[in-house]
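Researcher: Sequence recovery benchmark, item below. Answer with residues only.
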């Protein structure tokens, strides 16, 4: 006898780059969605040749292909939340922003991938401007790292007070609903301390510091976890808090693979066994 069992679960969409090393980007996002029991869909903006030692090559997808992927997912399957990562260039950023508006996408989490945790700028100035004016205002939350927050706020960030001031400036000038300034690139006791501001509440989020060099993909994973929690119907503040807890635990089970910086352990319940 055949017994058919169907599960209806939330759906999230990640729009970003492919990481051939599997530590960040689309690959990290889909593993994060799966951990949260959310069906993951994707729109790939670029293909990278990279490993734990670095990025060797980046190839952009045609803008029309990015748009077609988004439309194919949203128009048939539907999505309860969307996150963006590496959008690479001005044309793709603008096209994604247009689709967010045209398809009336809610629960948009923007990881404004502009600068690496080490301070290297990843997209050009025109792309940064388009990200700020066309896409970020549509987000329910953005998750800049230290260096991205410096660009978005115009401040040099060296202290907790700097992070707090940057969050308030970004919220006011870019008209996003909430800002989470990440402290992964900070030094000393501030490493891993994040700042939340939503126009009313200014909060400091702390966690246990995890001593590991294998931190590849933490930014992607955090924003994907926020999106997954939103897709499940959780309030934004709760989604952020639980996402941070997830990343911290995944860091505890980081994978020591390759010769460089390995990824976090997205599937840590399996690693425990």
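Model:
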């Amino acid at each position: 006898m055949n017994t058919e069992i169907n599960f209806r679960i939330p759906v999230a969409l990640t729009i970003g780059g492919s990481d051939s090393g599997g530590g960040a980007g689309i690959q990290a996002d889909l593993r994060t969605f799966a951990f949260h029991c959310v069906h993951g869909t994707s729109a790939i903006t670029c293909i990278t040749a990279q490993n734990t030692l670095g990025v060797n090559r980046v190839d952009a997808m045609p803008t029309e292909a990015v748009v077609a992927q988004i439309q194919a997912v949203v128009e048939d399957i539907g999505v309860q939340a969307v996150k963006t990562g590496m959008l690479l260039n001005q044309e793709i950023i603008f096209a994604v922003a247009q689709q967010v508006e045209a398809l009336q996408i809610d629960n948009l989490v923007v990881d404004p991938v502009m600068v690496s945790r080490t301070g290297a700028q990843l997209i050009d100035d025109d792309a940064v401007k388009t990200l700020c004016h066309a896409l970020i205002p549509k987000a329910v939350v953005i998750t800049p790292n230290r260096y991205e927050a410096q660009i978005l706020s115009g401040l040099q960030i060296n202290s907790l007070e700097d992070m707090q001031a940057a969050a308030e400036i970004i919220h006011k000038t870019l008209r996003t609903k909430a800002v989470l300034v990440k402290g992964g690139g900070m030094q000393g006791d501030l490493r891993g301390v994040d700042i939340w501001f939503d126009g009313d509440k200014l909060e400091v989020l702390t966690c246990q510091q995890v001593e590991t060099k294998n931190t590849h993909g933490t930014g992607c994973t955090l924003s994907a976890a926020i999106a997954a929690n939103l897709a499940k119907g959780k309030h934004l503040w709760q989604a952020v808090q639980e996402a941070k807890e997830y990343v911290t635990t995944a860091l505890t089970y980081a994978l020591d693979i390759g010769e460089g910086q390995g990824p976090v352990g997205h599937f840590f319940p399996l690693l425990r066994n």
